[in-house]
Amino acid sequence: MSKIDELIATTKLNDLINKKEEEKASKTVLWILAVIGAVAAVAAIAYAVYCFFTPDYLEDFEDDFDDDFDDDFFNDEDQV
Prior knowledge:
This is DUF4366 domain-containing protein. It comes from Dorea formicigenerans. Keywords: Membrane, Transmembrane, Transmembrane helix. This protein has 2 helices and no strands. By secondary structure, the protein is an all-alpha fold. It is rod-shaped, with a radius of gyration of 36 Å. The N and C termini lie far apart (about 120 Å).
């Protein structure tokens, strides 16, 4: 009977060791995903701040042409 008890105890010990290794692996994956998420969040915030503070030069460029274009090409005299 002692060999059977010894075998059962060894199996339980192996189960506990394997369980700790699985928990360790899952914790490592969780930490890696947390770090990647934190870096992505910081990058998104930095991009949003950059877009908010960067002036829009295209808007100023389009406004310059709005004033130059008037309907001066056609006079009342030219119409038949």
